[in-house]
Amino acid sequence: MRQGRAILLLLTIFIIAGAFGGLWYVRGFISGVAPLVRGSPVLSDALPFALGEGFAASIFARGVPGARVITRDPKGALVVTLTSEGRVVALPDLDGNGKADRTVTILEGQNAPHGIAYVCPQTGNESADQDSCQLFVAETDAVNAYGYDSDTYTATYKKTLLTLPQSGGHSTRSLLAHPDGRQLLVAVGSSCNVCIERDLRRASILSIDLTTGSVKPYATGLRNTVFMAIHPVTGEIWGTDMGRDLLGDDVPPDEVNIIREGGNYGWPICYGKNIHDADFDKNTYIRNPCMEPFEQPSQIDIPAHSAPLGIAFIPEEGWPEEYWHDILVAYHGSWNRSVPTGYKIVRIDEHGIATDFMTGFMDGGEVLGRPVGLLVEPGGALYISDDRAGVIYKVARTSME
Q1: What is the dihedral of CA 343, 303, 311, 211, to 10 degrees?
Q2: How much is the pTM?
Q3: The pLDDT of residue 132
Q4: Is the preceding omega at residue 252 within 30 degrees of 0, hence cis?
Q5: Helix (H, G, I), strand (E, B), or coil: what is residue 25?
Q6: Pyrroloquinoline quinone-dependent pyranose dehydrogenase beta-propeller domain location, by residue (predicted)?
Q7: Hey, how many other C-beta atoms are within 10 angstroms of the C-beta on 394?
Q8: Rounded Cα distance, 170 and 201, in Å
Q9: Higher-confidence position of 39 and 198
Q10: Architecture of 32-397 per CATH?
């Protein structure tokens, strides 16, 4: 009897193990095969990148694990969020040799800090403007305001502007100071791959009035807009957005959108150029429910699962004329595609045509790095955060011809 029970127990264990193994296999088959990555790569000064003609890359800062958003403080120091480390750091380059002198912690113990923005009063007095600037930091569950001292790289907590939901997926929160100088935009990703959100703050961009503190919806139907940028000529707000998963290798596209106040960009029932997601939304309609004026189509479609993050407009000063006002977009790279895609930075022109600008983040299935944030500056300079390698790259022009 005992022997029979032992055999039955072993059979049960094998059945359960087989079931879980089968589920793992099915999940892997549906999700695709992600590149094999072993540990954090150590990149030498001989970088593996191929760049646009006339540009070269170097390492500006090492030892910045989980580096994401890049900006400059009021006196010009590079400031970066280390989201996975819970820190915000300054990377001053006081001697101007193109490499950070040191890493200074501005804030620590944060809940996945991601978006950062400096807002300075317009008084006409440059020194007064710098000394009165506020630093805004978006953590997963809140947006906080700090006083900031550019000389000592220190931040002093002032108040919490907004609390945010932190359950579910897509935990990064992003910030953009609106060009009108009165609003701070906060991007909040969806809690899921595809669903009807109960909390309407998810999958949206919110607006905080910096004078009154009031909060209102700015745009909706954006599954996960992690980065935004302002067009240097039109003042329009552009943003990258990631499409849903589990519809195959090539559907739906990721997106670049022009984000207009009051716009609905379709998620979860629409994607791309007003395409209805019939896999999720089983309702029957007389007309396409995704057509304008109810939903905004994407401005530019990007290959599915590229995971577009950083977006930046190229200025005129110091850049080749054919680059002027094009956008650079960082493709963080796929995790759920049978053939990996992304892992590069592309330049997209006014017609939506993408050209590789910087490749080499992946070599033969091994991921050497993953580009995230972009800071484009006059003079042909570009700073790139890499949350895989834990470095900040600097790309500069080698020739001004």
Answers
A1: -130
A2: 0.89
A3: 83
A4: yes
A5: helix
A6: 51-397
A7: 20
A8: 13
A9: 198
A10: 6 Propeller (2.120)
Contact status, residue 290 vs residue 270, Cβ threshold 8 Å: yes
Per the structure block, which two tokens stand in for 1? Answer: 């009897």
SS3 (DSSP) at 128: helix
Who wins on pLDDT, 320 or 18?
Answer: 320
DSSP 8-state secondary structure symbol assigned to residue 264? B
- Show the tokens assigned to 31: 């999700």
Distance of CA 17 to the CA centre of its chain: 38
Q: Which helix (H) or strand (E) holds 88?
A: strand 87-91
Query: Which SS3 state, helix, strand or coil, does residue 284 take?
Result: coil
The residues near 23 (Cβ < 8 Å, ≥ 6 apart) are none
Long-range contacts of 87-90 (CB under 8 A, 24+ apart): 87/113, 88/113, 88/116, 88/137, 88/155, 89/64, 90/153
Give residue 364's pLDDT: 82
> What confidence score (pLDDT) does residue 46 get?
77
Cα–Cα distance for residue pair 262/259, rounded to 1 Å = 9
* Pair 391, 57: CB distance under 8 Å: no
Nearest Cα neighbor of 75 from 146, 126, 138, 144 is: 126
Domain residue ranges in the chain: 32-397
pLDDT digits (tens, 9 = 90+) for 127-170: 445 668 999 999 999 999 999 999 999 999 999 999 999 989 99
Are 105 and 140 within 8 A, CB to CB?
no
Each residue of 298-327: pLDDT tens digit? 999 999 999 999 999 999 999 999 999 999
User: Residue 195: pLDDT above 70?
Assistant: yes
Q: Is the Cα torsion angle 291, 262, 245, 254 positive or negative in sign?
A: positive
Q: With 0-12 CB in 10 A as exposed, 13-18 as middle and 19+ as buried, what is 151?
A: exposed
